[in-house]
Amino acid sequence: MDAVRAWLGGVTGASTNPLASKDLSLEDFVNLLERAETERGAPSSEETSAPRAHAAEISFPIAEAKEIVRKMRDDERVDPGGTPLARRRELGDRARVDELFKTHALARAIARRCAEMGRVPTSPEELAEALKAGDDGMSKEERAREARAMRGAFPSNRPCPCGSMKKFKRCCGAD
């Protein structure tokens, strides 16, 4: 929870605030990563591409993220989770591309719920409540798209977040 609050809280009050929009695009997400890193005074990604030492920080090497997004086509930027596996390998190291897409999907889900709340949740209970309330207001298509985008970030044996009552691995998480 602290990681979510710290990351989202580090960029509030700006025109690129994730709470300002119901749909956080991949380009906006990369810009937010860059801005959060700058505001934290963290070293730039050119200086180090190693993972952050502090577990509570949500980050991704900015130069690498920008390069991946630059190589993507417009339709892939709209729905990164729908990018075929072969194309992901063309964009860069597949594990890193998948990590960027998963992090974006989770941030977009949280930002969408926070936009509906109008503020950043301050406790895990508030976040859970916001996520549930956000799920209730989404169409089945939106839920399925969001669930597919979270492939790899969502436990496979849990019920699918699209509402189908199937296990995630047999529904939206199937390859």
Please provide a written account of the structure:
The protein has 175 residues and is mainly alpha-helical. The chain has one domain (2-137). The chain has 8 helices and no strands. The chain has helices spanning 2-9, 26-40, 62-71, 74-78, 85-91, 94-117, 124-136, 140-149. Helix 2 (26-40) packs antiparallel against helix 3 and helix 6 (94-117) packs across helix 7.
Spell out the blueprint of helices and strands.
Elements: H1 2-9, H2 26-40, H3 62-71, H4 74-78, H5 85-91, H6 94-117, H7 124-136, H8 140-149
Count of folded domains: 1
Query: How many alpha or pi helices?
Result: 8
Judged by helices, strands and strand pairing, the structural class is mainly alpha
Computed over alpha carbons, the radius of gyration is 16 Å
How many distinct beta strands? 0
Helix content: 40-55%
Largest sheet: none
Q: How far apart lie the N and C ends? A: 30 Å
What is the residue-averaged pLDDT?
A: 74
Low-confidence parts: 10-16, 51-56
> What is the chain-wise order of helices and strands?
HHHHHHHH
Percent of residues in beta strands:
under 5%
What overall form do the CA principal axes indicate? globular
Task: Give me a quick take on this structure.
The chain has 175 residues and is mainly alpha-helical. Helices cover 53% and strands 0% of the residues. The chain starts with a helix and ends in a 26-residue tail after the last helix.
